[in-house]
TrEMBL record:
It holds the Pfam family GFO_IDH_MocA. This is Gfo/Idh/MocA family oxidoreductase. PANTHER family: CONSERVED EXPRESSED OXIDOREDUCTASE (EUROFUNG), OXIDOREDUCTASE. It comes from Halioxenophilus aromaticivorans. The keyword Signal applies. It comes from the Bacteria. InterPro entries: Gfo/Idh/MocA-like_OxRdtase_N, Gfo/Idh/MocA_oxidoreduct, GFO_IDH_MocA-like_dom, NAD(P)-bd_dom_sf.
Length: 385
């Protein structure tokens, strides 16, 4: 079977996330990078493509040129989907161009610059009948899938409380932020959008809470701000949550928590039991009970659910981390493309990938938390789009 052919927009030299995408896409030998427009600077794009051993005629000066030139190639040679790894403000125009040219789209989150674009993007996905995937990476971990399974089977009973936290410390000091490419665009409202912290990591925490519990956030009460003087966008925030079943929650996201690395953690409690998972100890899921000892579930052991097992590559005791979780989403998206081409429904593993509805909810969450933080009103309903 031929590999699924991927094109990439963004992710050129000096871009952290582009290399992560390429590692993840290549991990299972299902996807091949065949072309790219790696930078808005044509020379930089060519240098990046050369470093990736791509032929010069498949390295483009702009995403518009890439769409046009790829369409001119035979169907069995042109890219099949576009991976978007640019700053936020370019996600929508690239996705729109790709969909209108007939290509599937796999995008970094948030999917768009604002909610208006996200709603338009959903209409474009429907109109052109193409696939759309979104990199909410943390849903790719096997023990996150096991946590979702434990909730879905009713082991924990009715969910009553969710606590999700995502502290980082890398933006705690303003020193060097203008020279740091990753910091500069995230703190620039013209590139990042309405939010830095909530748009960058808070939305991950919100998605994780909804993914594991199977519940949608229905209301928020938000307090966002910038700890570092002079910043226009938030670098820290706390959000009280209410879920559709009446459960309450707390979401804390911070990029100024000194000493923290990437400490995403979630605890969910039902009326029969609770669970806890930490991204920095990803192979372990804790299940907690009032009437028996706490249980430790581990990745790769025979008692985990089918979906967790299907997303595990190595024997138990071998850590599976960020790149593997990222690769699980790429593997799922490739499976969706194969299923579509064969005229069949995707299997459970392939179907388990964030898509356009998660894209819309993510953008709605970002805008709602910013709006709520600027309001004197306490609770704000999650919009029903």
């Amino acid at each position: 079977m031929a590999k699924i052919r991927m094109g990439m927009v963004g992710g050129g030299e000096g871009a952290f996330i582009g290399q992560v995408h390429r590692y993840a896409a290549a991990l299972d030998s299902e996807i091949e990078l065949v072309c790219g427009a790696f930078s808005s600077n044509p020379e930089k794009s060519q240098r990046s493509g050369k470093a990736l051993h791509l032929p010069a005629d498949r390295v483009y000066s702009s995403y518009q040129e890439m769409m046009t030139k790829e369409l001119e190639l035979p169907a069995d040679q042109r890219m099949q989907f576009v991976s978007i790894v640019t700053p936020n403000h370019m996600h929508f125009p690239v996705a729109k161009a790709a969909l209108e040219a007939g290509f599937h789209v796999f995008s970094d989150k948030p999917a768009t610059f604002d909610l208006k674009e996200a709603l338009e993007l959903r209409e474009l996905v429907k109109k052109h009948d193409k696939l759309f995937g979104l990199t909410h990476t943390y849903s790719g971990y096997p023990m996150v899938k096991e946590a979702r399974h434990q909730v879905a089977t009713g082991e924990l009973g009715k969910i009553t409380k969710v606590v999700v936290e995502y502290p980082q410390g890398w933006l705690a000091s303003p020193e060097g932020e203008e020279e740091n490419k990753q910091a500069a665009w995230r703190l620039n409202p013209e590139q990042a959008g309405i939010s830095c912290c909530m748009g960058d990591i808070g939305v991950h925490a919100a998605h994780l809470a909804e993914y594991i519990t199977g519940l949608k956030i229905s209301e928020v009460c938000s307090d966002l701000g910038s700890v570092v003087d002079g910043r226009v966008l938030d670098d820290d925030g706390t959000v009280l949550l209410r879920f559709e079943n009446g459960a309450r929650g707390v979401l804390m996201a911070s990029q100024v928590s000194v000493g923290e690395e990437n400490a995403l953690k979630i605890r969910a409690y039902g009326d029969q039991g609770g669970l806890e998972w930490s991204q920095q100890e990803p192979n372990t899921l804790w299940l907690k009970w009032s009437d028996r000892p706490t249980q430790m579930y581990r990745t790769g052991l025979p008692y985990v659910c089918e979906l967790a097992a299907a997303n595990t590559r190595t024997p138990n005791g071998h850590p599976e981390g960020y790149l593997e979780a990222f690769a699980n989403l790429y593997m799922a998206f490739a499976g969706q493309i194969r299923a579509l081409e064969n005229g069949v429904e995707p299997d459970a593993r392939s179907a388990d990938c964030p898509g356009i509805e998660e894209a819309v909810r993510g953008m709605a969450f970002i805008e709602l938390t910013v709006h709520a933080s600027n309001s004197e009103q306490k609770w704000h309903k999650f919009p029903n789009h």
